[in-house]
Each structure stands twice: as C-alpha cells, then as structure tokens.
Amino acid sequence: MLIDGATCSGVMDVNGCRAQQLLRIGERHFSTSRAHLKRVNVSQLLRHNAEAKDVDVFGWVRSVRKQKKIGFAAVGDGSTVESVQAVLKPEDAAKLSTGAAVKLSGSWQASQGSKQSHELQVLQATPLGENDAERNPLQPKYQTPDYLRTIPHLRPRIPGNALLLRLRSEVIASLTNFFHREGYIQCHTPIITSSDCEGAGEVFTVSSSESKDSSQAQATKDDTPGAHFFRTPKYLTVSSQLHLEALSQAVDKVWTLSPTFRAEKSDTPRHLSEFYMLEAELCFTESLEDVVSLVERMLVAVSQTLWESQVGTEILQARDASSIAQGDESGDDVASAVLRQRWDGMRTGNWPCITYADAINHLQRASQEGKAKFVFSPTYSDGLQAEHERYLAATIGEGKRPVFVTDYPAEQKPFYMSPTVGDHGKKEGDTVSCFDLLVPDLCELVGGSLREHRSEVLIQTMKEKGVAGSNLEWYQDLRRYGSVPHGGFGLGFDRLLCYLSGVSNVRDVVAFPRCNEDEQAKRIPRVKGGIYSNLHPYVTGIIKLRHAARDVVMKSEYHSRP
Fold first, then answer.
1. How far apart are CA 398 and CA 350, in angstroms?
2. What is the enzyme's main class (predicted)?
3. Does the structure show a pLDDT above 90 at 544?
C-alpha cells in the first residue's frame, strides 16, 4: 500500500529482490476528485423563472431568423418539445443554420415578447456541429410518417419523436419501480433459444456466417451435432416465458423486459418482427385472479405516473396543438380528449371481465340485432378477430376502459396453459385458465394464464399439441422437481406505448422498427416535387405528433401475443 507522504521500505519485487528505488508520494501527481458542473438542460431552464447570468445552453437549432440588427434562434436539446428563444447579435446569427449543433452562452432574462416569459440574451454563440440545411432531409415543413420511416436515423431529432423516446424511458422507469415495490426480481433471459414456446413455428433461425456458403447451408438442414454452430438448431426467442418459469421456481416472483422476435408477415399497424415484451411469473397461486390483479395494478400505476409526469403533460399539449392545427381532420392518431379518456379509464382500475363464451354470445347478438357488421362472423371455434376485439372494448369497456376476456378454448392456446377449474376443483369443459386484456382501438395488449404444473398432464398436452419430443425436456423437469402452481403474463410493450401516446402505428414508437422488408418497401411514398415538399411543421412551439397510420389491415391476421 502506498500512503501519501510516507516512504515504504523493505518492499520486495516479484522476484524476491529488494527494490532499489521506492515510489515516494510526497506530493500528489493525481486528482482524487473532480468538480462536476451540472449542466442545465432546456427543460430545466424553461422552468426557471428567475433571471440568471452565465448560462450555457447546448442543443440544436430548430429555427433561426436573421434580421439586420438582431437575430433569433429556437434551440432545443430533446429534454422537452419546447425550445429556448435565443436573442443573438447579427454576426452570431449569421453563423447558425437550422439543424446545426451549438453552444450558446449568455444571460437568462425576462422576455419582451408575449410568447415566452424568458429568453436567452446570447453573448457568445459557438457552432459545434455544422449542418447542410439544404440537403438535410429534415426541414421545417410537413413530412409523412411513411417518409419518416425511411430515415429512422434522423427521425428522432424531430421533437415529437424525441418525446416518444422519453415516454419509453418514463414508462420503463415506472414499471421498474412498480415491480420493485411488489417484490419481483428483474431477470435477463436468453435471446437465443432452442424452442418455440408459442408453438406457432414463426421463428427466426440462428446460424453462423459460414452458412451463407451453399454447401454449409445444405449441411445445416441436417440435425447432426456437427451441422449447426450450437450443435442443435437455435432460434431467436418468441417469448421469455419458459425461462422465466424456471427462474421463478427459485425466487418466487420474476419479471423481464426483453426483445422478442416473430417471423410473421402480418401487415398491420400492430405488428413488428422485433419488439419488446414485458413478462412476469409468480409462484404459489392457483387463482387466475392473482395474475389479472397484478396486470391491473401494474397498468394503473404506470398510467398514474404518466399523468403526473412532465412527459405526460407534453404529450397532451402536443395532442392539443395537433388537434388545433388539423381541425376536424385529425387522421388516425388520437385526439387529446380521447387520450385523456384512455388514461382516465386505465387509472381508475376495476376493469370489466367477461368469459370467452359470453364474449362470443355478445358479438353474435350484436350481429343478429344489426348493432354491428363484421367481416368475420363470430363463432366459438374460429376465435376473436381484431374487429371483434375492438367491438368488445367499445361496448363492454364503453370505449374507455380495458376489458379482460377469460377462459379461451384450449385448442386456441399453447400447450402450457392449465385447464379451467370450477369452484370444486374440477375441470370445466374444454377451456383453459387464461385471459387477454383488450384496450379500446388497439385490441389485445396483454395475454396471461395459469401454467400447467402437473407433469403427467403437461406431457400429455404436449403430445396432443405436437411438441412432444422437442427440446423441452428441461421444461418438463420443472414439473418433476418441486413444481408449484404458478402463473404469468406477457405485455406487448411497444403496443402499450402506442396506447398511451395516441400514436396509431407501432412502427412510429420504435426508433428502428424491424418488419418484413417487402411489406415495408410498399409504404415508401412517391413524393411530388422532391423530398422536401412533404416535411414536418412546428405548431406554436410544439412539433405536432403526426404519425397517421395508412396501413390496411389484412383480412387474415395471425392473432398471438403481442
């Protein structure tokens, strides 16, 4: 040990020889601490009503007006959809262009204008990153959501899209706090797996780059150990559930927020090939109500947190601005009044619950009485289509609250779900103890169930579903060694963000959406008059959240979670 101001003697080197010269530290040649200067962001500055000197603002120029004797610039840094108004000398304004990164130094003073209470009187403007304003695809004009999806690396710079990034962060923080309070352990489950737990076969296969060689690609069709990088076929996960079940039987209650992959080509505003799924498992429960209650408490907590947050306030303000700008033509995105109604419906809890059989009867009566017209006639065996789910949310939930639908037919659900049991513990019909949570407009948001914990019953069900003999021997082991009754759920996280933000298309709440390339290519618009004729506007200091979904829902949808 080296001690400040002391001389160490008798120290031997690694070879056992006495050191000829020892390090003396009489005077420090290093720093033990640093003075951290907290940088104030635009959001904090705008909330600071008192005047202040020596203020530094870092950000990007959203707009600049250059006049003969003075200049004005709107500067933002992504911490809020709003901008700081900077008052500049003409020579400083001349150095700035829309989109450029800058550092502005000056004083925070009361504004002489009526649109803001304070403004930054700039003493020094320092360009940090140049911007080719003429060639930059992002211009202060309207641009379509379809076009924005073709430039995902630039799309987050639009204040409205930056707001969606902050919404994602806010909701993740709220969920993390909720599960921590509930005593759940956050876990990380594998991305690469050996099974398709949903049994739908819509998986991405994992292979090494060597498989690009035709001979190697042919070899990987074999199931011999040497034909695969991992010795056996591996896939990108379609759900973390099975691994979470294993972890839950060690610590009781677990959850994860993990990427999930589905190789399905559903051409809808609700589907992606890569998305995030929140999943949770809890042990020692034989009641589906325990799982349903957990989901309700979780979403009530999230919506309440959002209601009280700056992000939530800005989303509603942006929706208000968008509604004013568009008048009655608000497109497919949700107006502020409807968004408030969504949040209120989710915050209040006590959501209605209906069985699958009663839901089918409700739909059939509506069709027979002329209250609704469906493309697909509702039948017990065919399952619920998206139009059916929307009608249930609009009627049972009154278009305001989420709706639980429980006890689906076993033939429509995966092998791991436990049969529905009655009050006396006897199996009831051909249904399983499960639920889907339907929300207005968006349809299915959450799916959950009690898991089959009895080894013999599970093995028999796996045989009936055609998954016996697959790489799930380890999953059966969970039932052989200390199995307990348990249940869990999965929530489509990106869909939740759509519902909370009022954005119609899930591809617009994901920074870099991954979907079928052929289907995505069809959406690239033919822009008349060049790429700058359809770009994004500013609306009273707030960029409107305009992500209108022009996707046509395919008649044949694959309904799964999410």
1. 13
2. ligase
3. no
Q: List Cα–Cα distances, 313 to 41, 227, 321, 496, in angstroms.
A: 18, 55, 12, 18
Strand duo 185-186 + 118-129: pairing: unpaired
Q: What is the DSSP string of 161-200?
A: HHHHHHHHHHHHHHHHHHHHHTTPEE----SEES--TT-S
Mean pLDDT of 512-522: 67
**pTM given for the model:** 0.82
Residue 219 has pLDDT above 60, yes or no: no
Residue 525, pLDDT above cutoff 60: no
Residue 551 falls inside a structural domain: no
Which H or E element spans position 269?
none
Distances (CA, A) of 398 to 151, 438, 440: 38, 12, 9
The answer to whether the CB of 277 falls within 8 A of the CB of 562 is yes
Q: For 98, which DSSP code?
A: T
Whether 30 is covered by a domain: the verdict is no
**pLDDT value for 27:** 56
Q: 359 with 384: CB under 8 angstroms?
A: yes
Token look-up 């990427």 returns: 259
**Do the beta carbons of residue 193 and residue 235 sit within 8 Å?**
yes
- For residue 411, give the DSSP letter: G
3-state secondary structure 319-374: HHHHHHHHCCCCCCCCCHHHHHHHHHHHHHCCCCEEEHHHHHHHHHHHHHCCCCCC
Domain range enclosing 106: 42-129
Distance CA 444, CA 63 (A): 41
pLDDT band at 33, cuts 50/70/90? low
Q: How far apart are CA 429 and CA 420, in angstroms?
A: 8
For residue 223, tell me if it sits in a domain: no
**Counting Cβ atoms within 10 Å, is residue 436 exposed (0-12), middle (13-18) or buried (19+)?**
buried
Instruction: Give per-residue pLDDT as tens, 7-31.
Output: 444 444 544 444 444 444 455 565 5
Distance of alpha carbon 504 from alpha carbon 151, whole angstroms:
19
- Give me the number of domains the chain comprises: 1
Which residues are registered as beta bridge partners of 441?
none
Q: Would you state the pLDDT for residue 140?
A: 75
pLDDT for 42-93, tens place per residue? 999 998 888 888 899 999 999 999 998 999 999 999 999 999 999 999 999 9
Tokens describing residue 34: 């640093």
So what's the pLDDT on residue 271? Answer: 83
DSSP single-letter state for residue 157? G
| DSSP states along 384-408 | --HHHHHHHHHHTSTTTS-EEEE--
CB 162 within 8 A of CB 170: no
Between β-strands 118-129 and 84-88, what pairing exists: parallel, antiparallel or unpaired?
parallel
Residue 71 is part of a domain; what is its CATH number?
2.40.50.140
Evaluate whether 554 touches 267 at the Cβ level (below 8 Å).
yes
DSSP strand pairing (205-206 vs 234-236):
antiparallel
